Here is the input.
Amino acid sequence: MYSDIAIVILNWNGKKYLEQFLPSVIQYSKNARIIIADNCSTDDSIAFIQINYPTIEIVSNKSNGGFAKGYNDALKHIESKYYLLLNSDIEVTEDWLPPLYEVIKQENVAACQPKILAYNEKNKFEHAGAAGGYLDRNYFPFCRGRIFELTESDDKQYDNIQEIFWASGACILIKADIFHKHNGFDEDFFAHMEEIDLCWRIKRTGLSLYVVPTSKVYHVGGGTLAYLSPKKTYLNFRNSLFMIVKNHPNNLLTKVFYRLCLDGIAGVLFTLKGTPKHTIAVLKAHKDFYTLLPKMLMKRKQLKLQDGTFNKVGLYKGSILWARYIKGITKYKDLNHRLFSDY
Here is the structure.
């Protein structure tokens, strides 16, 4: 059992995380293949693997194109029925694989994720994925257990297996044929939101994604790029616009213009908060968005030709901005759940 799962850990100068977390992956992933996809590391992480774990497979990428290209390049050389893409800064737990495996075997399920908790505060959800991902009507992502920067304590309030809109790239089990059919991650994203874009494209063909909280892992988060980094702000703002242009089904001009206005407000708030580097990051994100807009419009056109019946489960027809900053809602359970699409 699990021999048809390839656990693929993308590594870039991550020796300290491999030393810390690889033992738990080996201990609790019996029979699954474990593969290190190295993204042109310049530290001695590969030598560390070769000396201490000689049976672990290593796939060496020829260039470092970020998270998206890094996985795309590596997975071209890995044949398996299922890929379990796992961040190097994650500690897995005993029996984490069986619940995920039972769900991914279902015919209409394309991918699933475990419950993702914070490694440094193990009673709290972690930002990147928490207990499953959603999008609001303006395509701002949020999670069960996390709204914007606020993460909830895990009191087992979200322990039911549930269909979601996106699964976290920090730990996602996905059918290999589905990954390749949809051309993997969009490499223009480099990193951040590439998994949301992929999940959106998958759901446009009618397939489903699930969170399986009976499986849990602990994520350090921000291991490669700190959460408060201006570069992360840049990537999130730019890639969010890329994702909307590619996937929004209706009037694109209105939606993009509205998001650009909201981004502008965010930029002003960054300045007022004394973080002008993040304002500059937003401006740069918009500049680069315009540069690549023709390419994204071409991708939009190509995706429309592949559309099936859009599975909207996990879309929130309300505004998460309004809920958080006007109504003061800080927890997923307090949202108006009648506004969630259920078909």
Summary: Residues 5-219 form a domain with the Spore Coat Polysaccharide Biosynthesis Protein SpsA; Chain A fold (CATH 3.90.550.10). The mean pLDDT is 95. DSSP finds ten helices and 13 strands in the chain.
